[in-house]
Amino acid sequence: MNLEVLKDRRDHIIKKRSEIRDLPACEKESLAGAVSQRACVYSGARVVLNPITDAIHLVHGPIGCASYTWDIRGSKSGGAQTYRHSFSTDLQEEDVIFGGAEKLYQALNELVARYRPPAVFVYATCIVGLIGDDLKAVCRRVTEETGCTIIPVQSEGFKGNKVEGHKAACDALFDYLIGTATRDNNYPYVVNLMGEYNVAGDFWAIEPYFKEMGVRIGATFTGNAKVNDLRSAHGAKLNLVQCTGTVTYLA
């Protein structure tokens, strides 16, 4: 049976045994429909960042946004389980009217005091973009007061879809984590594995092959990753991209 494909969706589809051409246009917005890249900006950012196992992930927005959490993807961890908790500022009508910055400040201080994480990712949602909370200012203030790295993720909606969320996550990593620490350079062959999220523990199947070749994986973006591994990721000799749609922008 032959199914007619809409012209504007052809670049997003590859048929088996068809003519050879480039990879599908993963980084571009597709039309609504089945197998479509039309989730929200925030969800795209969460896909990239949530597998960082020892970080706190705080959603600044209504409680409904926090439903998109670890169990949507189910990435595996070989150690820390902090990333499996879902935290939200639970913005209400009063916060929409008077602003939610103070509520965010209080939530961050409570989380840092209770969990002592190496970093906290703070995700902006649609409502935060509308009311204009200064996410960067609040994060900078808590970083200065507590010494914990608080990272604003500009993933508010109305500026695109899931693909823009991937970019927002990459910007957060590049601006606030990568390059903030150095690694031991005595090992000659170090690579970063980009776009590998260890969803079914697949990273643990891949890693032994690199070891057999004498190649060390410095950082994984971001399956089973730890904050300090990402800080020194700039010291790798090569970035190997597995998921082109999410991290090619960063690589």
UniProtKB/TrEMBL annotation:
Any Pfam family: Oxidored_nitro
TM helices/strands, residue ranges: none
Domain of life per record: Archaea
Record-annotated Nitrogenase/oxidoreductase component domain positions: 40-247
Coiled-coil regions listed in the entry: none
Gene3D superfamilies documented for this protein: Nitrogenase MoFe cofactor biosynthesis protein NifE, C-terminal, Nitrogenase molybdenum iron protein domain
Any GO MF annotation of the entry: nitrogenase activity
Keywords, in A-Z order: Nitrogen fixation
Family: Belongs to the NifD/NifK/NifE/NifN family.
Protein name: Nitrogenase MoFe cofactor biosynthesis protein
Organism the protein comes from: Methanothrix harundinacea
